[in-house]
Automatic annotation (TrEMBL):
It comes from Succinatimonas hippei (strain DSM 22608 / JCM 16073 / KCTC 15190 / YIT 12066). Keywords: Isoprene biosynthesis, Nucleotidyltransferase, Transferase. Catalyzes the formation of 4-diphosphocytidyl-2-C-methyl-D-erythritol from CTP and 2-C-methyl-D-erythritol 4-phosphate (MEP). It holds the Pfam family IspD. The keyword Transferase applies. GO terms for biological process: isopentenyl diphosphate biosynthetic process, methylerythritol 4-phosphate pathway. The lineage of its organism: Bacteria, Pseudomonadati, Pseudomonadota, Gammaproteobacteria, Aeromonadales. Belongs to the IspD/TarI cytidylyltransferase family. IspD subfamily. It catalyses: 2-C-methyl-D-erythritol 4-phosphate + CTP + H(+) = 4-CDP-2-C-methyl-D-erythritol + diphosphate. Transmembrane segments: none annotated. This is 2-C-methyl-D-erythritol 4-phosphate cytidylyltransferase. The record marks 152, 208 as: Positions MEP for the nucleophilic attack.
């Protein structure tokens, strides 16, 4: 195995309740393919990737119906939350560094992936893709009124993939679980141990699909990219 290649863990065991759909959001159609198929194809087609470990629910009856056939693809089974699912996927990782990516984030570019991997290796622990916050941020008082304006300088939206040393991520998730720490992404687990991963600025259109408005935006972006690729091929 090429020592520079990486395993990637993609947690896809959630139900996506905010979408209000009849199937988990990763199985909604985005053009001619499901969201999950588009996400998996990014990594299955990348020369940087050794194996893609998709973590699904034990009750999942849809995944096996997808038309994905690759020797790179492995399946793991998820736990009660994201951290548990990622931890399950890490049990099958064989590379020293690992990527973790959201199943419902199908618009990652190969360029951003490559930049993350190159720059992330310069860190003592790893890095994440992130986008600077463009909007003015307001803190609520909990009763529907503005408590204050949050200074947005140096504030970023955390994106994925997130890229870390495998043994360090395993340790961070295990320690956070022991202490019942709130872990919202993999970087927050490393932060819990006192590490400070790099922020690598990524494309803001690397959106996570969580609701119907996101899905409409993703469909428009897919059409735009497909149209652009047709022009490039001429």
């Amino acid at each position: 195995m090429d020592s520079l290649k990486l395993d990637v863990v993609i947690p896809a065991a959630g139900v996506g309740s905010r979408m209000g759909a009849k199937v988990p959001k990763q199985y909604l159609m985005l053009g001619t393919k499901t969201i999950l198929e588009r996400t998996l194809e990014i990594f299955l087609n990348s020369p940087l990737i050794n194996r893609v470990i998709v973590v699904i629910s034990k009750d999942d009856e849809i995944f096996q119906t997808l038309e994905i056939d690759s020797p790179k693809l492995l399946i793991a089974y998820g736990g009660k939350d994201r951290a548990d699912s990622v931890r399950s996927g890490l049990n099958q990782v064989t590379t020293d560094w690992v990527l973790v990516h959201d199943a419902a984030r199908p618009l990652l570019t190969l360029e951003d992936l490559a930049i993350l991997v190159v720059r992330g290796r310069e860190s003592d622990c790893g890095a994440i893709l992130a986008a600077p916050v463009a909007d003015t941020l307001k803190k609520s008082d909990g009763n529907g009124k503005i408590a204050r304006t949050v200074v947005r300088k140096n504030v970023y939206r955390a994106l994925t993939p997130q890229f870390f040393k495998t043994d360090l991520l395993v340790k961070a998730l295990d320690e956070a679980a022991k202490e019942h720490a709130e872990i919202t992404d993999e970087a927050s687990a490393l932060e819990f141990l006192g590490y400070h991963p790099l922020l690598i600025e990524g494309r803001s259109d690397n959106i996570k699909i969580t609701n119907k408005a996101d899905l409409r935006m993703a469909k428009a972006l897919v059409k735009l990219r497909e149209r652009s690729n047709k022009f490039k091929a001429v």
